[in-house]
Write a structure and sequence with these properties.
Layout (H helix, E strand, L loop, with lengths): L2 H9 L4 E3 H8 L3 H9 L7 E3 L3 E5 H13 L12
Antiparallel strand pairs: 1-3, 2-3
Length: about 80
């Protein structure tokens, strides 16, 4: 990440999520997020230090919205129609 991008990142009041917090937000097991990291799937993540995996809340929400938009028809059919 370029230094200007890094500075902009930290200037935001960005909420960071641990793997457990992201898994709760997504209603998925933490192990699923770990698997997705290994297979280059799921929401963007980064390491804070050598081990701590973190997710930006905006990235998780954006990824979730992409999943919704790519999932097909979102219209509700009228009951009894």
């Amino acid at each position: 990440m370029k230094s200007d991008n890094l500075e902009a990142f930290f200037m935001q009041d960005e909420q960071l999520l641990t793997t457990l917090e992201a898994s709760v937000r997504l209603h998925l097991p933490a192990a699923t997020l770990a698997y997705w990291r290994q297979t280059h799937q799921g929401p963007p993540w980064f390491k804070l230090g050598p081990r701590k995996v973190m997710y930006r809340a905006t990235d998780v929400n954006g990824w979730l919205e992409e999943q919704y938009q790519n999932s097909g028809d979102h219209t509700l059919s009228a009951v009894g129609a």
